[in-house]
Amino acid sequence: MSAGRNASLRGSQRGYSLIEVIVAFALLALALTMLLGTLSGASRQVRWSGDAGRAALHAQSLLDTVGVGAPLQPGQRTGEFDDGRYRWTLQVSPWTDPLVAGAPDAPAAQQLYELALTVQWDDGGPRERLQLRSLRLAPPDLQAGFL
Predict the structure, then answer these.
(1) Straight-line distance from the first to the last Cα atom of the chain, in angstroms, rounded to the nearest whole number
(2) pLDDT of 143 higher than 80
């Protein structure tokens, strides 16, 4: 009786084979690799988003000051933010409306300037950049009113 009982216990206590354990570990390793790849991509996007947001704040701050302390002058200026982490280039050029410029009876209007600002930064990979364009109305020349 005890021999039959031992045989039935051996059959019911059957464990996993070595091949099944190796396949389970391989599937687990594959799943963890995919999960870590997704998380590293997400962290890269979060870092880029933070850098782009900071660049946008610096760019907006710079555009807010252009033409305030000194009159607008056509030309190009460069500079840096955050001890060289962000580099910027500002191009100021006269702007004319292409629809009005060709009209023979176009009224003389105040001068508009196009501000083209590029902010660049390095985040360990390829150089990233943010480009902004804006129009700014030049204040009227005060001397012209006295002539």
Answers:
(1) 126
(2) no
